[in-house]
Amino acid sequence: MPDTAVPTAPLTPAQVVDEYLRILMIPDPAGARRFVAPGLRIRFTGHREMADPAECAAFNAGRYRWVKKRIERTETVAGGSAVETVVYSLGTLHGEWPDGTPFEDNRYVDRYVVSHGLITDMQVWNDSAEWLLEPSLNRRPVT
């Protein structure tokens, strides 16, 4: 019997990032690895350097009881070479701090470099550090 499977098109760089984030926020760092290149560079707020999605999940587990992203938009721009695309993911975080206090509307911006369909560089910025230093900034009622 002939194979009737329909070939799937490769993911766009924006789709790579969106799917990576969806899986990483489960958290499923092992599943997220299929979207990253060897030699991945990750830098979180405060210049925390990492090299594997599992390190991201461990960092989040230490900072939050739980956390999820609400992606508001994904933007792409040409990268530094013909095979690179820079992808920005913008939105908000919501979840609970380690003490169980809920939060939402915590802004984030992530910057990714995607090359040959894999993430080679990831940079992360969000309001969490500011909110931890000055808790009154996060005292709007959670709805």
TrEMBL record:
Name the record gives this protein: Nuclear transport factor 2 family protein
Gene3D superfamilies per the UniProt record, alphabetical: 3.10.450.50
Highest taxon, organism lineage: Bacteria
Organism of provenance: Hydrogenophaga intermedia
Database matches in SUPFAM superfamilies: NTF2-like
